[in-house]
Amino acid sequence: MKVLLIGYSSISKRRVIPALLSLGAESVDVASLSKSAWEWSSYLPLRMFRDYDQALDQTDAQAVYVSTVNSQHARWARKALQSGFHVIVDKPAFLSVAETQELIELAHRNQRCLAEATVYGCHPSISTARKAFEQAGSSPTHLLAVFSYPPVSFDNYRNFAESGGGALWDLGPYAITPGRLFFGVAPSDIIGRRLSENDEVETSFSMMALYPGGRSCTGSFGFTTGYLNRLDIVGPGIVVTIDRAFTPLPDSTTELTIRESDKVRSIQVPPADSFALFFEDFFHAVASRNYGDFRNCMLADAIALDRLRMSALASPIA
Known about the structure:
The protein is an alpha/beta fold. About 35% of the residues lie in helices and about 25% in strands. It is built from 9 helices and 14 strands. The strands form 2 sheets. Strands 8-9-10-7-11-12-13-14 form an 8-stranded mixed sheet, with helices on one face. The relative contact order is 0.15.
Protein backbone atom coordinates (compact mmCIF):
# COMPACT_ATOMS: atom_id res chain seq x y z
CA MET A 1 0.00 0.00 0.00
CA LYS A 2 1.35 3.40 -0.95
CA VAL A 3 1.38 6.13 1.71
CA LEU A 4 1.35 9.93 1.48
CA LEU A 5 3.06 11.79 4.32
CA ILE A 6 1.53 15.13 5.26
CA GLY A 7 4.49 16.87 6.91
CA TYR A 8 8.16 15.92 6.64
CA SER A 9 8.90 15.77 10.36
CA SER A 10 11.96 14.36 12.08
CA ILE A 11 10.10 11.15 12.93
CA SER A 12 9.04 10.84 9.28
CA LYS A 13 12.63 11.05 8.08
CA ARG A 14 14.13 8.84 10.78
CA ARG A 15 11.53 6.15 11.26
CA VAL A 16 8.39 6.33 9.09
CA ILE A 17 9.94 6.43 5.61
CA PRO A 18 12.61 3.78 6.34
CA ALA A 19 9.92 1.50 7.78
CA LEU A 20 7.70 1.87 4.71
CA LEU A 21 10.62 1.23 2.34
CA SER A 22 11.62 -1.84 4.37
CA LEU A 23 8.15 -3.27 3.76
CA GLY A 24 8.62 -3.07 0.02
CA ALA A 25 7.26 0.34 -0.88
CA GLU A 26 8.96 1.45 -4.10
CA SER A 27 8.33 5.09 -3.28
CA VAL A 28 6.60 7.32 -0.74
CA ASP A 29 4.75 10.56 -1.47
CA VAL A 30 5.62 13.46 0.82
CA ALA A 31 3.97 16.87 1.17
CA SER A 32 6.15 19.45 2.89
CA LEU A 33 6.04 23.22 3.29
CA SER A 34 9.70 23.32 4.28
CA LYS A 35 12.31 24.24 1.67
CA SER A 36 14.93 22.19 3.51
CA ALA A 37 12.83 19.05 3.08
CA TRP A 38 13.59 19.02 -0.63
CA GLU A 39 17.32 18.93 0.06
CA TRP A 40 16.97 16.11 2.63
CA SER A 41 14.80 14.05 0.30
CA SER A 42 17.00 14.18 -2.79
CA TYR A 43 18.61 10.78 -2.14
CA LEU A 44 15.38 8.89 -1.30
CA PRO A 45 12.70 7.41 -3.61
CA LEU A 46 10.17 10.12 -2.76
CA ARG A 47 7.72 12.14 -4.79
CA MET A 48 7.52 15.57 -3.20
CA PHE A 49 4.62 18.04 -3.11
CA ARG A 50 4.93 21.65 -1.96
CA ASP A 51 1.28 21.93 -0.91
CA TYR A 52 -0.82 19.63 1.29
CA ASP A 53 -4.08 20.11 -0.62
CA GLN A 54 -2.33 19.53 -3.94
CA ALA A 55 -0.84 16.33 -2.56
CA LEU A 56 -4.25 15.03 -1.47
CA ASP A 57 -5.62 15.80 -4.93
CA GLN A 58 -2.77 14.33 -6.98
CA THR A 59 -1.31 11.41 -5.01
CA ASP A 60 -2.02 7.83 -5.99
CA ALA A 61 -1.53 6.69 -2.38
CA GLN A 62 -4.27 4.83 -0.53
CA ALA A 63 -3.31 6.00 2.97
CA VAL A 64 -2.19 9.27 4.54
CA TYR A 65 0.20 9.62 7.47
CA VAL A 66 -0.28 12.98 9.23
CA SER A 67 2.97 14.19 10.81
CA THR A 68 2.47 17.92 11.24
CA VAL A 69 2.63 19.86 14.51
CA ASN A 70 0.02 18.54 16.94
CA SER A 71 -2.42 21.43 16.51
CA GLN A 72 -2.79 20.63 12.77
CA HIS A 73 -3.47 16.90 13.12
CA ALA A 74 -7.27 17.15 13.16
CA ARG A 75 -7.46 19.52 10.17
CA TRP A 76 -5.46 17.28 7.84
CA ALA A 77 -6.82 14.00 9.11
CA ARG A 78 -10.32 15.34 8.47
CA LYS A 79 -9.42 16.43 4.92
CA ALA A 80 -7.76 13.09 4.20
CA LEU A 81 -10.75 11.10 5.46
CA GLN A 82 -13.14 13.29 3.49
CA SER A 83 -11.02 12.61 0.40
CA GLY A 84 -11.35 8.85 0.89
CA PHE A 85 -7.98 7.95 2.39
CA HIS A 86 -7.18 5.63 5.26
CA VAL A 87 -5.38 7.73 7.88
CA ILE A 88 -2.61 7.34 10.44
CA VAL A 89 -1.82 10.22 12.80
CA ASP A 90 1.28 10.84 14.90
CA LYS A 91 0.69 10.73 18.65
CA PRO A 92 -1.07 12.55 20.20
CA ALA A 93 -3.66 12.08 17.47
CA PHE A 94 -6.03 14.93 18.39
CA LEU A 95 -6.16 17.60 21.05
CA SER A 96 -9.59 16.83 22.52
CA VAL A 97 -11.90 13.90 23.10
CA ALA A 98 -14.57 15.68 21.03
CA GLU A 99 -12.25 15.91 18.00
CA THR A 100 -11.29 12.27 18.45
CA GLN A 101 -14.93 11.17 18.52
CA GLU A 102 -15.79 13.34 15.51
CA LEU A 103 -13.00 11.92 13.37
CA ILE A 104 -13.62 8.33 14.46
CA GLU A 105 -17.26 8.78 13.40
CA LEU A 106 -16.15 10.31 10.08
CA ALA A 107 -13.83 7.37 9.45
CA HIS A 108 -16.65 4.94 10.30
CA ARG A 109 -19.09 6.65 7.92
CA ASN A 110 -16.52 6.62 5.12
CA GLN A 111 -15.48 3.02 5.91
CA ARG A 112 -11.86 4.01 6.40
CA CYS A 113 -9.24 3.00 8.96
CA LEU A 114 -8.11 5.69 11.40
CA ALA A 115 -5.15 4.94 13.67
CA GLU A 116 -2.82 6.67 16.12
CA ALA A 117 0.88 5.88 15.76
CA THR A 118 1.84 5.11 19.36
CA VAL A 119 3.88 2.22 18.03
CA TYR A 120 6.05 0.91 20.89
CA GLY A 121 3.35 -1.58 21.89
CA CYS A 122 4.02 -3.46 18.64
CA HIS A 123 7.64 -4.15 19.60
CA PRO A 124 8.36 -7.74 20.67
CA SER A 125 9.82 -6.51 23.97
CA ILE A 126 6.24 -5.94 25.15
CA SER A 127 5.05 -9.44 24.23
CA THR A 128 8.27 -10.89 25.69
CA ALA A 129 7.53 -9.16 29.00
CA ARG A 130 4.00 -10.56 29.00
CA LYS A 131 5.36 -14.04 28.31
CA ALA A 132 7.79 -13.75 31.23
CA PHE A 133 4.86 -13.12 33.57
CA GLU A 134 2.92 -16.05 32.11
CA GLN A 135 5.87 -18.38 32.59
CA ALA A 136 6.22 -17.20 36.20
CA GLY A 137 2.52 -17.81 36.83
CA SER A 138 2.09 -14.14 37.71
CA SER A 139 0.33 -11.03 36.45
CA PRO A 140 1.46 -7.37 36.47
CA THR A 141 0.10 -5.28 39.31
CA HIS A 142 2.26 -2.13 39.18
CA LEU A 143 3.93 -0.24 36.34
CA LEU A 144 6.72 2.29 36.86
CA ALA A 145 7.52 4.44 33.84
CA VAL A 146 10.12 7.12 33.16
CA PHE A 147 10.64 8.95 29.88
CA SER A 148 12.65 12.14 30.15
CA TYR A 149 15.19 13.84 27.93
CA PRO A 150 17.23 17.07 27.74
CA PRO A 151 15.57 20.42 26.92
CA VAL A 152 14.61 20.89 23.29
CA SER A 153 15.78 23.88 21.24
CA PHE A 154 13.96 27.16 21.84
CA ASP A 155 12.19 27.14 18.46
CA ASN A 156 10.95 23.54 18.79
CA TYR A 157 7.16 23.24 18.49
CA ARG A 158 7.05 21.43 21.85
CA ASN A 159 7.69 24.80 23.53
CA PHE A 160 4.62 26.55 22.08
CA ALA A 161 1.00 26.20 23.15
CA GLU A 162 -0.40 27.19 19.74
CA SER A 163 1.38 24.21 18.16
CA GLY A 164 0.00 21.75 20.70
CA GLY A 165 3.28 21.66 22.57
CA GLY A 166 4.05 20.78 26.17
CA ALA A 167 5.16 17.65 27.95
CA LEU A 168 1.61 16.44 28.54
CA TRP A 169 0.83 16.33 24.82
CA ASP A 170 4.27 15.08 23.79
CA LEU A 171 4.83 12.43 26.47
CA GLY A 172 1.34 11.92 27.88
CA PRO A 173 0.63 9.09 25.40
CA TYR A 174 3.54 7.16 26.93
CA ALA A 175 2.13 7.77 30.41
CA ILE A 176 -1.35 6.38 29.74
CA THR A 177 -0.70 3.50 27.31
CA PRO A 178 1.26 1.07 29.56
CA GLY A 179 -1.91 0.45 31.58
CA ARG A 180 -3.86 -0.41 28.45
CA LEU A 181 -1.09 -2.73 27.23
CA PHE A 182 -0.58 -4.64 30.49
CA PHE A 183 -3.91 -4.33 32.33
CA GLY A 184 -6.32 -4.18 29.40
CA VAL A 185 -8.80 -1.86 31.12
CA ALA A 186 -9.35 1.86 31.55
CA PRO A 187 -8.01 3.49 34.73
CA SER A 188 -10.48 4.14 37.51
CA ASP A 189 -8.63 7.31 38.50
CA ILE A 190 -5.76 9.41 37.13
CA ILE A 191 -3.79 12.00 39.11
CA GLY A 192 -1.36 14.29 37.31
CA ARG A 193 0.95 17.04 38.56
CA ARG A 194 3.05 19.51 36.59
CA LEU A 195 6.63 19.70 37.81
CA SER A 196 8.04 22.55 35.69
CA GLU A 197 7.06 24.95 32.91
CA ASN A 198 8.37 27.62 30.56
CA ASP A 199 6.54 30.77 29.50
CA GLU A 200 3.91 28.83 27.54
CA VAL A 201 3.74 25.13 28.40
CA GLU A 202 4.56 22.56 31.04
CA THR A 203 7.95 20.91 30.52
CA SER A 204 7.64 17.97 32.92
CA PHE A 205 4.98 16.13 34.90
CA SER A 206 4.37 13.15 37.14
CA MET A 207 1.31 10.91 37.21
CA MET A 208 -0.42 8.06 38.98
CA ALA A 209 -3.15 6.00 37.38
CA LEU A 210 -5.19 3.56 39.47
CA TYR A 211 -6.80 0.44 38.01
CA PRO A 212 -9.33 -2.10 39.31
CA GLY A 213 -7.87 -4.82 41.50
CA GLY A 214 -5.38 -2.60 43.33
CA ARG A 215 -3.20 -2.07 40.26
CA SER A 216 -1.38 1.14 39.38
CA CYS A 217 0.87 2.93 36.93
CA THR A 218 3.13 5.73 38.14
CA GLY A 219 5.61 7.76 36.19
CA SER A 220 7.71 10.83 35.55
CA PHE A 221 7.98 12.47 32.14
CA GLY A 222 9.45 15.60 30.62
CA PHE A 223 12.19 17.36 28.69
CA THR A 224 14.24 18.81 31.56
CA THR A 225 16.77 16.09 32.50
CA GLY A 226 19.33 13.68 31.13
CA TYR A 227 17.95 10.91 28.93
CA LEU A 228 16.06 8.09 30.64
CA ASN A 229 13.57 5.78 28.95
CA ARG A 230 12.47 2.75 30.99
CA LEU A 231 9.46 0.71 32.02
CA ASP A 232 9.35 -1.53 35.10
CA ILE A 233 6.56 -4.12 35.20
CA VAL A 234 6.02 -5.43 38.71
CA GLY A 235 3.97 -8.38 39.94
CA PRO A 236 3.97 -11.11 42.59
CA GLY A 237 7.32 -12.87 42.47
CA ILE A 238 8.65 -11.11 39.36
CA VAL A 239 9.85 -7.74 38.07
CA VAL A 240 10.59 -7.09 34.38
CA THR A 241 12.53 -3.98 33.34
CA ILE A 242 12.57 -2.86 29.71
CA ASP A 243 15.36 -0.49 28.76
CA ARG A 244 14.46 2.11 26.12
CA ALA A 245 10.92 0.77 26.30
CA PHE A 246 9.14 3.62 24.51
CA THR A 247 11.48 4.19 21.57
CA PRO A 248 13.31 0.92 20.81
CA LEU A 249 15.85 1.32 18.03
CA PRO A 250 15.07 -0.78 14.93
CA ASP A 251 18.66 -1.97 14.46
CA SER A 252 19.58 -2.68 18.11
CA THR A 253 18.71 -5.38 20.60
CA THR A 254 16.44 -4.41 23.49
CA GLU A 255 17.43 -5.66 26.92
CA LEU A 256 14.91 -7.02 29.40
CA THR A 257 16.06 -7.60 32.98
CA ILE A 258 14.01 -10.17 34.86
CA ARG A 259 14.16 -10.49 38.64
CA GLU A 260 12.57 -13.52 40.29
CA SER A 261 13.24 -14.01 44.03
CA ASP A 262 17.03 -13.73 44.32
CA LYS A 263 17.71 -14.53 40.67
CA VAL A 264 18.43 -11.91 38.02
CA ARG A 265 18.67 -12.70 34.34
CA SER A 266 18.64 -10.76 31.07
CA ILE A 267 16.86 -11.41 27.80
CA GLN A 268 18.13 -9.84 24.60
CA VAL A 269 15.19 -9.15 22.29
CA PRO A 270 16.45 -9.16 18.69
CA PRO A 271 16.24 -5.93 16.66
CA ALA A 272 12.76 -5.13 15.42
CA ASP A 273 11.23 -2.07 13.80
CA SER A 274 8.14 -1.10 15.80
CA PHE A 275 7.02 1.27 13.03
CA ALA A 276 7.23 -1.47 10.41
CA LEU A 277 5.29 -3.83 12.68
CA PHE A 278 2.67 -1.14 13.28
CA PHE A 279 2.30 -0.57 9.52
CA GLU A 280 1.91 -4.31 8.96
CA ASP A 281 -0.96 -4.35 11.46
CA PHE A 282 -2.50 -1.28 9.84
CA PHE A 283 -2.25 -2.70 6.30
CA HIS A 284 -3.76 -5.98 7.50
CA ALA A 285 -6.66 -4.09 9.10
CA VAL A 286 -7.26 -2.23 5.85
CA ALA A 287 -7.13 -5.43 3.79
CA SER A 288 -9.56 -7.21 6.13
CA ARG A 289 -11.70 -4.09 6.69
CA ASN A 290 -11.42 -4.68 10.42
CA TYR A 291 -10.77 -1.21 11.87
CA GLY A 292 -12.28 -1.56 15.33
CA ASP A 293 -9.15 -2.22 17.35
CA PHE A 294 -7.42 0.93 16.11
CA ARG A 295 -10.49 3.08 16.76
CA ASN A 296 -11.07 1.62 20.23
CA CYS A 297 -7.45 2.18 21.28
CA MET A 298 -7.49 5.74 19.92
CA LEU A 299 -10.64 6.67 21.85
CA ALA A 300 -9.56 4.95 25.07
CA ASP A 301 -6.18 6.72 24.96
CA ALA A 302 -7.78 10.09 24.17
CA ILE A 303 -10.10 9.80 27.18
CA ALA A 304 -7.27 8.74 29.52
CA LEU A 305 -4.96 11.51 28.26
CA ASP A 306 -7.72 14.09 28.71
CA ARG A 307 -8.20 12.97 32.32
CA LEU A 308 -4.45 13.19 32.95
CA ARG A 309 -4.25 16.68 31.45
CA MET A 310 -7.26 17.97 33.36
CA SER A 311 -5.81 16.77 36.65
CA ALA A 312 -2.32 18.13 35.95
CA LEU A 313 -3.44 21.51 34.62
CA ALA A 314 -5.91 22.06 37.47
CA SER A 315 -3.16 21.86 40.08
CA PRO A 316 -0.36 24.32 40.78
CA ILE A 317 3.22 23.49 39.87
CA ALA A 318 4.40 20.95 42.44
